[in-house]
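Lab notebook, bench 4. We co-purified these components, and the gel suggests they stay together. Before we commit to crystallization screens, I want a quick structural picture of the whole thing.
Request: model the full complex, all chains together.
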Amino acid sequence: MGFTATRDYTATAKLLHWLMAVLIFGLLALGFYMHDLPLSPDKLKLYSWHKWAGITAFALLLVRLAWRAGHRPPALPNSMPKLMQLAAHGGHLALYLLMIAIPISGWLMSSAKGFQTVYFGVLPIPDLLDKNKEIGDLLALVHKSLNLLFIAVLAGHIGAALKHHFIDRDDILTRMLPRHSKEN
Amino acid sequence: MKRITLALALATAQLTSLSAHAVEYNQVQADKSAVNFVYKQMGVAVDGKFKKFSSQLSFDPAKPAAGKATFDVELASVDTGAPEGDDEVAGKPWFNTKAFPTARFVSTGVKPLGGNRYEVAGQLSIKGKTQEVVVPATFTPQGNSAVFDGAFTIRRADFSIGEGAWAKFDIVANDVQIKFRITASGK
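Here is the predicted assembly.
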């Protein structure tokens, strides 16, 4: 049809994208679920797991940023209007910024609430903030608000990918799929 | 001249410390005293405190063995750092503050360990259960008052603190360290 085929994402980029997608959906679901649980040993356990998964996602993000710095992602197809290309880049930038800001806000919130984050119960992540109820409550609100914003941007991300696939009928979605490989 | 001043200063210091020894510290200053605790949650140290407590104390460093202390902690004043934690800990499985509002320590003997260190033996009662505890403490004179600092570890299971779902120690450890600072002025 009217589009020019673009390059696939590399296997590394795909792996990082989908690993983080799984982790992030798990983190979001766990975060909203555990928050409303009555206090119990299980709730405390889930909070710890959420923190560990959050650190893992942040570490993967650093790997991804390092990878991204040395590898340009495949270009957007020429069939996309300039404004849409700009919106796509802006959306991806927003996703990256939120993937940085959300774990940091969670980490700071933990410190301010007096519960240090210790990765897998073994590796202590230093507390940058002292215990302080007001700051803890404020950071809880920041963490929640950033996540609501994240969900909105994710909905846009997924909606855009589906629109490319089903309406524009280009290869924007398929070039990120695991088994789809044209060129590498 | 310098030597004389130094000698005078030393003499004064000695006099002050002598007079300090004659003082019995028995007026507890609540605003300069604190009761904190530290426990481990999935291996991570978490601290909290009690906001309300009262203490009667009489301690003369010249006669340490005659020293006495009682301590009453209002358990409902617990501050775990989270409101839902405070509510939970006041509830039946933990302190059950409706039935057992206070924790009480009554000393039975004070043993000097040398220097400013002492060992206070006593009975600690929480939630209807009484245990013998030995509390190491230090004594630091500060002007007209003195600061008593100490820490000891209890096992929460000994007092049935955290029953039912909390009875296992995998999430909240059995050991709880109690730290206190009592400031008392002399008469």
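The CA atoms of residues 35 and 180 of chain B lie 4 Å apart. Worth comparing against the SEC data before the next meeting. Chain B touches chain A through 20 residues (CB under 8 Å).
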